[in-house]
Amino acid sequence: MGTSKSAQLLKRAVKIIPGGVNSPVRAFKAVGGGPLFISRAKGSKIYDADGNEYIDYIGSWGPMILGHAHPKVTAALKKALDKGTSYGAPTELEVTLAGLTLKAFPSMEMVRFVSSGTEATMSAIRLARAYTKRDGILKFEGCYHGHADSLLVKAGSGAATLGVPDSPGVPQDLARLTYNATFNDLDSVRAIFEKAPAKIACVIVEGAPGNMGVALPKVGFMEGLREITKKYGALLIMDEVMSGFRLCYGGAQKIYGIDPDLTCLGKVIGGGLPVGGFGGKRAIMELLSPSGPVYQAGTLSGNPIAMTAGIETLKLLQAKGTYDRLFKTTNALCEGIAEIAARRGVPVHVAIAGSMFTVFFSERPVANWPDAKACDTARFGRYFTKMLKNGIYLPPSQFEAVFVGLAHTPKDIERTLEAADKGLKGI
Ligand SMILES: *Cc1c(COP(=O)(O)O)cnc(C)c1O
Question: How many CB atoms sit inside 10 A of residue 349's CB?
Fold first, then answer.
């Protein structure tokens, strides 16, 4: 199968778009080769410019949990389009999606919608700083919370993949306010608080990290963060942009029984359109403009088309048995890959969080960024390339999650495992 059209498009793109892509994770830099240019997608399949079909396990990096172009979502969007695409005024759709969100996340008493996960985390941090009247923030090395300045310090995802966890252009004076701890290591968090007990406004943590690959919180870790933040008067922000509606209908906080002060959402909540959201306790949220002085705004925030996609997606996810089906598919895939790897003598560790997983090319489980960084990324690259050749479209980095969706069929799983049998051979 040829990919000459993608190659031609990349040639044109790199001249006028930096790196030829509008988000760095889309480049194939870490695995070699150029990215595929996509022309359409339906259900579990994605088609490139040359017409090749792939089983898609990126799902737009999380949002497409229902599969591509779900008929019910598409029908609702077509109807919505005829009513106008943006008003710059409030709509009932926003109230509806806010209601659905608060119901799914009982820790949230109010929510505000934005257009991306980055805006959600950036705004949540501003709010935490204003509420606590402190400037410091604490995050975890290898976690990714979008590309706001304060958060591009020891960041995961594309920043880790491309070797720029600390981005140039972030003022030193600002980076100095970002403290980094080690995920799954409460002592590293305590040590920072003990040194700067009254300086840290918030701890921000991914509900279930997927941006260093999937790393599961150890028993007691999230509870520990809640305890420590309470003790020192800091807020706990759970970034559920990726984990929200992925681990269950709700997020990691429901699974771990954590009551964070603020929560950030994105990805699935927009059903493939640009939606982010942040919310939490009323006393904090009411500081937001126009009810309070903390400024935050967006011309296209709460856009009616985007709200429609979110509402339809959440409604469909509420159907009985949805998540059981999703987890069954995910587990079948993971068990199959682990079994093949063992047979082929390739040491892997498969980490699963609900409907996302990572095959780490590692002898041991990955609990944090130092573990993830130690994986055999060259071997991952060879696996990725072989899988792609066999029609399986995986995230082009060891440090990302594979996303399983409701459109993935038993036949898809069978084809994927056949590909994995070839993909893990002799690498
Ligand atoms: C993707 C992601 C973000 C950023 O969301 P964008 O919509 O890409 O800006 C933030 N936090 C987490 C945990 C994410 O996975």
Answer: 18
- C-alpha 61 to ligand 1 mean position (Å): 9
Q: How far apart are the first and last CA of the chain?
A: 22
Judge if the beta carbon of residue 209 lies within 6 A of ligand 1: no
**Ligand 1, atom 10: closest residue by C-alpha:** 145
Which pLDDT score, from 0 to 100, does residue 162 have? 78
CB neighbours of residue 133 within 10 Å: 8
Same domain, 199 and 270: yes
Distances in Å between the alpha carbon of 122 and those of 67, 188, 264, 401? 29, 24, 10, 23
User: Rounded to an integer, what distance in angstroms lies between the CA atom of residue 266 and that of residue 238?
Assistant: 12
| Any atom of ligand 1 within 6 Å of the Cβ of 356 | no
Average predicted confidence (pLDDT) for the chain:
96
The 10s digit of each residue's pLDDT in 167-181 is: 899 998 999 999 999
Q: What is the model's pTM?
A: 0.97
Which tokens hold the place of 57?
Answer: 């396990």
Distance of CA 332 to the CA centre of its chain: 22
Atom of ligand 1 nearest to the CA of 116: 7
Domain of residue 17 covers 4-69+320-423
Structure tokens given for 383: 């696996």
Binding site membership of 123 for ligand 1 (Cβ less than 6 Å): no
Ligand 1 pocket check for 263: Cβ under 6 Å: no
**Number of separate domains in the chain:** 2
Q: Same domain, yes or no, for 107 and 125?
A: yes
Name the domain boundary from 269, 289, 317: 317
